[in-house]
């Protein structure tokens, strides 16, 4: 079996990999790394969760180290474009982790935060810049970022970028990158538009392809519980009363949500700790220690806070709320079933979250078995399920109440997804999980807008 050292990676990278406990390359890594170390362009068909970040980050860092030069002010040697802030942050973190022993400098430029620190981060030039297209273009137009010295470009999740309408910004950005560059494009799917983008940006690319992400989480048994928004707390407490839930991570979308769930578990006599961005480093560490040594049976976390946490023996992951970004689902459930163990992931899904569920099922190319625990009142209130004629025509509004109460932020894509449904079908309301599941599939628009 191939190991990372067989691939001829620099010692500083191998050391960083040892720290991450990676020994065996994933299939996308084993295929891509040799090609990229040779300097060829690459077209990769792979989803998040397959290890594709290291598949491109490691050979790029290796080549940077082999020919160590430093970028001029406002320049970056490597540009990675990603569709979402979350993915960009994650990729930047991976580059920092892998490049720590070679002193690689990494900047991350995304929308929704102030420009000042990003301008500062780029002022002296960096080795690696990870960015979302819109904000990067703003910085390029104001002259704070230049691509004159960018010799590596990675377009990650190209199909997702297309969905989000980033084609024009991406074209503009690519037109400013030097022609003599190594270009990589990764996409989970290969529709015609991606094939023509690849033609436009890549030069005689080598092609690699790996099986979908779902196979990486084979040992995680997944299920969905359809329920009323207000019933989630009780369902969670009831589940956690079982000793089978020996070590459980509960995910919420918001910091306040995490605190609220943790408090209500404590009130129900279930020991829990919460971690999120508002906690100090010390509080985070104490919470993690309590969870690791078993003093707390439950860890309640937001996606950002849970990133990078590696706790072994997690028996269950419960999604108290589905994530806005479907890739986060894969990361969440990957917290269980580590190191060859079995694990179970359960998602509590209220009506307003269905578009998010569809986006997850589409990404992971699977149907997650669903159990319907909604109250009769909720079924009556919601009316026929998403596939039925009445809702598709917008006859009865979908509820977003559950999300609106969590910091006032509506579920990402929930409204867009409901509105985007096409007329047709006319399924009868059914209450069993199987029928429910089928309806989710049949009414799926191609792009529900999650993550948009
Ligand atoms: P990615 O598809 O890049 O988001 O990676 C999915 C997950 O797999 C991340 O949590 C990585 O840290 C992890 N990972 C990547 N490569 C390896 C490897 N060779 N061995 C073990 N874990 C890995």
How would you characterize the overall build of this protein?
This protein has 452 residues and is an alpha/beta fold. The protein folds into two domains: 4-209, 3-Layer(aba) Sandwich (Rossmann fold), CATH 3.40.50.300; 220-419, 3-Layer(aba) Sandwich (Rossmann fold). Helix content is 40%, strand content 15%. The protein has helices at 11-19, 27-37, 52-66, 85-98, 116-123, 133-141, 158-163, 167-176, 192-201, 232-240, 255-267, 281-292, 303-306, 326-333, 354-364, 376-382, 389-392, 401-404, 414-420, 433-442; strands at residues 42-45, 76-81, 106-109, 126-131, 152-155, 182-187, 206-209, 220-226, 248-251, 272-275, 298-301, 316-319, 343-349, 370-372. The strands form two sheets. The protein has a seven-stranded parallel β-sheet, sandwiched between helices. α2 (27-37) runs parallel beside α3 (52-66), α6 crosses α8 (167-176) and α14 (326-333) crosses α15 (354-364). The longest helix has 15 residues, at 52-66. The radius of gyration is 23 Å and the shape is globular. Mean pLDDT is 81; it is low at 386-452. The structure holds adenosine monophosphate. Residues 22, 24-26, 29, 48-54 line the site of adenosine monophosphate (AMP).
């Amino acid at each position: 079996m191939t190991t990372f050292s067989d691939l001829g990676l620099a010692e500083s990278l191998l050391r960083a990999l040892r720290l991450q406990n990676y020994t065996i390359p994933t299939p996308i890594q084993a295929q891509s790394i040799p090609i990229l170390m040779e300097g060829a362009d690459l077209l990769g068909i792979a989803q998040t969760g397959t290890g594709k970040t290291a598949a491109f980050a490691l050979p790029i860092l290796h080549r940077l180290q082999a020919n160590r030069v430093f970028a001029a002010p406002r320049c970056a040697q490597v540009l990675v474009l990603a569709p979402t802030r979350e993915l960009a942050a994650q990729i930047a973190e991976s580059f920092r982790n892998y490049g720590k022993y070679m002193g690689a400098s990494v900047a991350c430029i995304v929308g929704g935060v102030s420009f000042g620190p990003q301008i500062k981060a780029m002022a002296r030039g960096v080795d690696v810049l990870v960015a979302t297209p819109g904000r990067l273009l703003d910085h390029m137009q104001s002259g704070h970022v230049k691509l004159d010295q960018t010799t590596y470009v990675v377009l990650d999740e190209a199909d997702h970028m297309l969905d989000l309408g980033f084609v024009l910004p991406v074209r503009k950005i690519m037109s400013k990158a030097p022609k003599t560059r190594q270009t990589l494009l990764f996409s989970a799917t290969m529709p015609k538009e991606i094939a023509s983008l690849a033609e436009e940006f890549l030069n005689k690319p080598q092609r690699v392809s790996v099986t979908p992400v779902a196979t990486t989480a084979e040992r995680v048994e997944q299920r969905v519980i359809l329920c009323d928004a207000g019933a989630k707390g009780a369902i969670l407490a009831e589940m956690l009363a079982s000793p089978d839930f020996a070590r459980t991570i509960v995910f919420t979308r918001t910091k306040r949500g995490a605190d609220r769930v943790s408090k209500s578990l404590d009130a129900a006599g279930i020991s829990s700790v919460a971690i999120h961005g508002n906690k100090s480093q010390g509080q985070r560490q104490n919470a993690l220690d309590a969870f690791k040594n078993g003093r707390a049976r439950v860890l309640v976390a937001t996606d950002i806070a849970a990133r990078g946490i590696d706790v072994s023996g997690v028996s269950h992951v419960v999604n108290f709320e589905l994530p806005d970004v479907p890739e986060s689902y894969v990361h969440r459930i990957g917290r269980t079933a580590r190191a060859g163990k079995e694990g179970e992931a359960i998602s509590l899904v209220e009506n307003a979250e269905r578009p998010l569920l569809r986006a997850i099922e589409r990404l992971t190319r699977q149907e997650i078995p669903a159990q319907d625990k909604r109250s009769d009142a909720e079924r009556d209130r919601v009316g026929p399920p998403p596939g039925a004629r009445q809702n598709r025509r917008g006859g009865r509004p979908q509820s977003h109440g559950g999300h609106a109460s969590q910091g006032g932020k509506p579920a990402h894509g929930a409204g867009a997804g409901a509105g985007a449904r096409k007329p047709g079908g006319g399924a009868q309301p059914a209450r069993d999980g199987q029928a429910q599941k089928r309806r989710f599939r049949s009414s799926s628009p191609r792009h529900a807008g999650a993550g948009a």
